[in-house]
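Something for you to look into today, if you have time. Could you write out one complete protein record for me, on any chain you like? The space below this message is yours for that.
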Amino acid sequence: MAMDHESDESGMFPPLPEEMTKILESMTESAGADDLYEFILESQCGAIDDSQPVEQYAGNLGVTANFVDTHEQKVGQLQWNDNLGTVYNNPGNVSGARWCTGTLISENLFLSAGHCFDQTGGGWQRPQINGTNDIIPSSEIATNMHVNFNYQVDANGNLQAPVVFAVQELVEYRLGGLDYAILRLAGSPSQAFGIGDVAQADAAEQNMLCIIGHPAGVPKRIEAGPLTSFSGDRVQYNDIDTLGGNSGSAIWHSPSGEIVGVHTNGGCTTGGAGSNSGVRISRILEESPTLQNLSAPSIPLTFRHGVDTATVRRGLYTIQQKSNRRFVDAHESAGRDFSVVTRTAQNNDTQRWTLTPVAVVCTIQQKSNGRFVDAHESNQNDFSLVTRTAQNNDTQRWILTPLGNDTYTIQQRSNGRFVDAHTSAGPDFSLVTRTAQNNDTQRWVFKPLGDSTYTIQQKSNNRFVDAHEHSAKDFSLVTRTAQNNDTQRWILTLVGGVYTIQQKSNGRYVDAHESSSKDFSLVTRTAQNNDTQRWMLRYLGDDTYTIQQQSNRRYVDAHESDERDFSLVTRTAQNNNSQRWVFKSL
């Protein structure tokens, strides 16, 4: 008597209460929870359901027990609030219903299926807007739910107490016609349960997949099997058993542990035909601004050292001028050149800004003697790299931009030139700075040794960065074969981070005019992907930062009079509170 919801074009939903009643009446009095689960399977692939409770997983489905332990914590269950009868004259029949599954993908963002917030589907009746016959909108459906983390049985079969977070906002819903959604939860659930990493590309056929979720609303279970095919926007798998309630589950790739899709639909039969399926991650990435931001190159945690700029992580912020506490805002019309201004608190998305890290700024010290990496800035000296005592200026600050696989470009902050190296003994394999070459001579592999210490290898030949330690050689940097000593070990200390800053209300990026005729004023623009839209934040303590435009190193400041519309500008360093900005995370 398996319920047949898998053919529902809008996706899979949990069994209706009346269906559950019929199921219970059909079962023997001795049937247990596992029997009930098997009895209501919607999309079982073959004769046997292989899924298991997450904490009782035997490690025999194609992924390891450690893989499941690592990723199951990030998975939560969406459930309707149980007070709908006190909110709506016609609450429908969903009050308290255990609904769908989802996964944390940031501090408070939760990835799930779009159809979980549709106004119809599965035979369920959603609440109606009071005084009308209209179903509440999808955004309101979302905020009438909460997420249960840790709703699962332990190794002994005992049900654990769930940890509950309210849904605050439906951030994205079915963009591009894709069956996915992103929610914002109250609080910071990732501090307890962690964050799932979103893949940048689809998995390949026959790669192992894992789905962890709440089939039919039951405590958390795990199933796994190979990716069998793709069909348009969809990724398909014919050996992973699911039910309504699994909808929204992340499709995990093993062994990488990355999310390669969102499970949405059944289609398997107990006779072994058909496939279950979800939305492939490559298509969601094409449509989702949120995932595009989250998927920007991440900054390794091990670089978060020294002055703590880690307080500004990828996320949503308000920005206040230290001198007068007015909030950064922006005009949203071409008539005002989309100019950035300060305003009193409006408590709306024009004053909320999404910060995305694109690079870190570090000093680099040789372990053996503590001298700082610097570089000549003239052709006469071949722009060669050297070590010097501390100068506390931008010739000794280096921008590290991640390329993946521990590989970075290294740019001198004072002039933006890239670290390169001669590849022959004639010039002693010496390090220099050059304009961008976009090849492996300017790509560097950082390997952590602990205590913020790294080796640095040139990508093109794997030789290690080293340095002469006497003045006759000008303390110059070179590459050498491995010496396994402190001349080839380098201490990185973070002094700032480079970010893009987007206005929440329209997604436009903060930019700035670079001429006095335009008063060096700040504006918002569509993405230019250049240094006029990249901003260095340098921590001063107490959530306060300076903000410098990457292209010219000028500091963000603001007029403090109505006559100048309180507009933001860039200025040379003033060292006062008009150039200090307070960031508050939302």
In short: Residues 1-10, 26-42, 296-311 have pLDDT under 50 and may be disordered. The helical segments are 17-26, 33-39, 65-72, 84-87, 138-143, 190-193, 281-287, 289-294. The radius of gyration is 28 Å.
